[in-house]
Amino acid sequence: MSCDYVALSNPGVQLLQPYQAGKPVEELERELGLDEIVKLASNENPIGPSPQVVAAVESGLAGLTRYPDSNGFSLKQRLASRFAVSPQQLTLGNGSNDLLEIVARTFLREGTEAIYSQYGFIVYPLVTRACGAQGVEVPAQEYGHDLQAMADAITDKTRVIFLANPNNPTGTHFSNQAFDAFMARVPDSVIIVLDEAYSEYAAAIDTPQGLQQLSRYPNLIVTRTFSKAYGLAALRVGFAVANPVITDLLNRVRQPFNVSSLAQLAACAALDDEAYLQRTVAVNAAGYQQLTVALDALQVDYIPSVANFITLDLKQDALPVYQALLHEGVIVRPLAVYGLPRHLRVTIGTEAENLRFVAALKKVYS
Ligand SMILES: *Cc1c(COP(=O)(O)O)cnc(C)c1O
């Protein structure tokens, strides 16, 4: 090629590696000619979609020629009443990933810094660098966020701090007290993104529920998603909640039609199906129990998790084990890109899926 397009791209982009997603089932089918594959690689909901959601999506098919409601009126109304916030506090996203990027594009640029934790969600450095800002990674404490060290890392260039609670890929969480002590040290000029992609699984433990903290902190943005416990990963829908001034800024950057009409209909239906959410959380709790008992019996170490996945410490290069599991038709997630080359993350599945995983692990690793 006559032109060096890489050199022409933004310096932050030159440093990026594309996000590595969990291996799709179809890809493994093509590669190995296997069927009955179990995918426990992307923290998806294992129980299948809510029938109410399926019906809502079907009801929207006749409207495919129309653009979606750019302002998401109905979904915002439902969210506002469900979570006791106002529609002026809500930004809808094409998944919460979209919202993380919107926050970065709103507040980060060259010469500014964003802070996140070692072993934090990999999208934080991605969106930070894409905006030309400097990422500041703070060493983890027992695989989780070291909030005091993160507060210590604040400089006058800090614009955003990304916190995942519970954290992916480690399943760790922080307490209410740790969060309060942290927030007491953060100036109002630093935006705190509290990414609660897994909060539905952790509702019963001592950890901050961000939506209840918003009235205390004008600089807080809480992001939530329908991809995990609500079971809508394919449709791409999430939301951010913040004060109305910040929300207005986010909505200036947001693409006008970033959430499809089918996704909006599905999210409304999902909010109405409380039984589905309860069943999801119950299946997950039983699966955590099932898997940890089996891992203990196999003497495999893992990081205790409050989310819908468990990260195993294999104490050896995990890639050969990952590959061997693929040959058994079980897809999990290698974590070398997170700086955890000896770990594998397994999503908690149905009882049958968990059994398949345990049998495969027993066969390939012992
Ligand atoms: C899965 C995940 C998300 C977002 O997923 P979306 O499908 O884009 O909503 C955000 N944060 C964390 C920590 C996640 O694990």
TrEMBL record:
Reactions it catalyzes: L-histidinol phosphate + 2-oxoglutarate = 3-(imidazol-4-yl)-2-oxopropyl phosphate + L-glutamate
Chloroplast in keyword set: no
The protein's enzyme class: transferase
Pathway per the UniProt entry: Amino-acid biosynthesis; L-histidine biosynthesis; L-histidine from 5-phospho-alpha-D-ribose 1-diphosphate: step 7/9
Subunit structure: Homodimer.
Family: Belongs to the class-II pyridoxal-phosphate-dependent aminotransferase family. Histidinol-phosphate aminotransferase subfamily.
Protein name as it appears in the record: Histidinol-phosphate aminotransferase
The organism of origin for this protein: Nitrincola lacisaponensis
Gene assigned in the entry: hisC
